[in-house]
Every structure is written in structure tokens, then in C-alpha cells.
Amino acid sequence: MVRYVKVQSNCVVTVQGLIDDNRASTFDESQPFYDLYKLFPTEAIAEDRIATCLDIERNLEAGWLIEVSPEEIASIKGEVIEEEVEEVIEEEIEEALAEEEPQEEPGEEILEETLEEPVVGEEEAEWEEEIEEGDTLAEEEVEEEEEKVEPEVEEEAEPEPTFAPLTMISGIGPKTAEQLESIGIRSVEELAATNARDLSEAGFDAEAAAEYVMKAKEYLA
User: Fold this and answer.
1) What is the pLDDT of residue 1?
2) Coil, helix or strand for 18?
3) What is the DSSP-derived secondary structure letter of residue 7?
């Protein structure tokens, strides 16, 4: 079973019908590899979807997608980690050099201004201390009030609706599902809402079309 794939250089591959709601999955060469299992909640679902996805097989045969072995994955991950370590080392060297740069000494003008500042009297010093103590108490009260405020509870996002793939209907295999998708019917829900006459006009056998629509409605009942 295919799990890890990478894209051939200088191309973008779009895979139809891999995700449950039949959205297109697009892969490009910017990623060293893709883990197809991460697209699904469980490995069982991943194996089922990958096995029934015709575009995966076609892209592999055409050479646009290339299967990657677990050994190659280990090698790729190692290279990525080494690049990250090199970036961290470069940042640490730059920070060390910045700290070693000599700080500019204050100019003569700043020193003269400091010497000319008048000495504050004892009464003024006490008054300034009282003001600072008052500001400190006010800041502490504000911090206590902020701590008492309960954090807002984030509303959970409603899950996106999912649609049953056409292959869930008995008698509809990957080839028939592809024919239905070519006329705009991508799920069991859309098939159930379709008129059998429209299918027969699109080239399907009239009896088979009626049976597909009936089974789709029974599936959703």
C-alpha cells in the first residue's frame, strides 16, 4: 500500500477523489515528501481511500508521483533536522557577535548635563517616593483585577458535513464512480437527488440508472 510519495521536480499534481468529500488534493515539489495517511483520522480509512483512488495509481504510472520508501523518509528527515541545527547555530553566533560589540560611551555633553542637575531636597525626595508607592499599589490592583477576569470560552467550530462516496453503493465500482463524477455527481447524496432519466440521457443503461438512484435513496434512508 502506497503511503509516502513525493512529486517529480518542476510539477504540481492534483489528485481527485482522495478525500471523503471528493475535494481535490494538490501536491507540489516544495515538500520533500507527503504522508498520505495523515490526510485521514485512521489508517484503516486511509488504506481504503488510497486503494479506491484511481488518480493515485495513474499519477504513479505516469511518474508524476513517486513512491518513497521508509528508508528514504528517514534520510530526508535527517537532512531536515541538520538544516535546522545549522540555522540555530548561525543565529547563536550572530547574537554572540552582537553582544561583543563595544558600547558607545556617553558624550561630554551628557556628562556635563548630569553634573549640572540640582540635588533634590529631602522634602521633594519623600514626595516623589510617595507618588511611586501610590503608582505601584495602583498597578498591583489592576493586575489582581485582570487575574480575576475569567477567560472567554471559545466556541467549538461545527464539523464540516461529510458526504458518502459513490463506491458505497453496491454495483458502483471505481470506473462507474468516475463516469458519474464526469457528469457532476460526486456523492451518494447527489446521486439520490438525480433523476434516472437524466442518467440514461447521459449514456447510462436505463435499468442500471434506475437501480443506482433507488439504492442511493435506500442507503440514505
Assistant:
1) 77
2) coil
3) E
Q: Which domains does the chain have, with CATH numbers?
A: 4-68 (no CATH), 166-220 (1.10.150)
pLDDT in tens, 81-100: 555 556 767 777 788 788 77
Contact 45/5 with Cβ under 8 angstroms? no
C-alpha span between 161 and 106 (Å, rounded): 67
Secondary structure element (H or E) that encloses residue 27, with its range: strand 25-28
Q: Which three cell numbers stand for residue 26?
A: 494538490
**Strands (DSSP E) along 29-81, which ranges?**
34-35, 65-67
With 0-12 / 13-18 / 19 or more C-beta atoms within 10 angstroms meaning exposed / middle / buried, residue 165 is buried
Measured CA to CA, the distance from residue 39 to residue 57 in angstroms comes to 17
Residue count (the chain): 221
pTM: 0.30
pLDDT digits (tens, 9 = 90+) for 114-157: 556 555 556 666 777 777 777 777 777 767 777 766 666 677 76
